[in-house]
Predict the 3D structure of the following.
Amino acid sequence: MKNIEKYRNAFMNVLDLEEDDVHEDLALGVTREWDSIGHMTLISEMEDVFDVSIDSEWITEFDSYTSGIEILKRLGVNFD
């Protein structure tokens, strides 16, 4: 499975979203399911799935679908 698929699946699993609901416009606080609890669960899932550690500064930066990809890229995850 490609990393982008793992990434999308993490959103679907943690936030209980349908595949069509996972898109680049997803954002913390805008999507009902992505509240503060969902955010921390999502961060934990990303750390587990990609075997990375997201520090507290980056946790606050991870506030949208696209920003999450950029943070994971900084941690060495390849999305090509």
Summary: The CA atoms of residues 2 and 23 lie 17 Å apart.
